[in-house]
Design goal:
Elements: H1 2-34, H2 36-39, E1 43-46, E2 49-53, H3 93-109, E3 133-134, H4 136-141, H5 143-150, H6 154-164, E4 165-166, E5 177-179, H7 180-188
Helix pairs in contact: 5-6, 6-7
Amino acid sequence: MKKNILTAGSFLLLMTLLTGLLYPLAVTGLAALLFPRQSAGSLLSFKGQLVGSALIGQNFKNPAFFHGRPSAAGTEGYDGTSSSGSNLGPTNHLLIESIWDRAKLLRVVNGLPGDAPVPSDLVTASGSGLDPDISPESAFLQVGRVARSRRLPEEQVREIVLKAIRRPQLGILGESRVNVLELNLELERWPR
């Protein structure tokens, strides 16, 4: 009995060291060596200032910037400590009303006709509430407003969007998307 307890205790200690210490250290070290930017949180800087992560969306309200998806994470949205969706089902009247309200506001802010279709990702929050990407259609919908606010030709802003589109991984995984923070940082490189 004593031998069994000693063997089990030794095995527990060995596995704790292997899986709780050595393995995490090895994986963290390899990640830092092979993927330094990603393992550090994909942080983005502009003019020497840390401005955010390419993995977490931000709430851009200024008309001179592209706007991302709505966020249900936290009371103000995009709160990384409160990552979650709204948990409202597709027939919930609060969700339906908020989608209609967002679509109406989106049309007004972007100078679109009252019946213009809007991409669903601009009126619905993602499951995490922190999605940093929008569809290319959502970015193109905002080109006119951003160009007017920045006093840039629409074609120039459209070109910036085209260059910012990320294609599906390996050509088949996921959908084409535009990272809003990276797109807005690219815009900031152009004089107003």
